[in-house]
Amino acid sequence: MHDLIIFIDSGDTLIDESTQVYEGDEIIRAEFIPGGREFLLKLHQQGYTIALVADGKNQDFLNVYREKDLKACFDAWVVSEVVGKQKPSAVMFEAAMQALQLTESDKKRIVMIGNNIRKDVKGANEFGLTSIWFDWSPRYFHTVEHPSERSCYTVRTYDDLYALVKELDQKAMRGERLC
Question: What is the pTM of this model?
Answer without folding.
Answer: 0.95
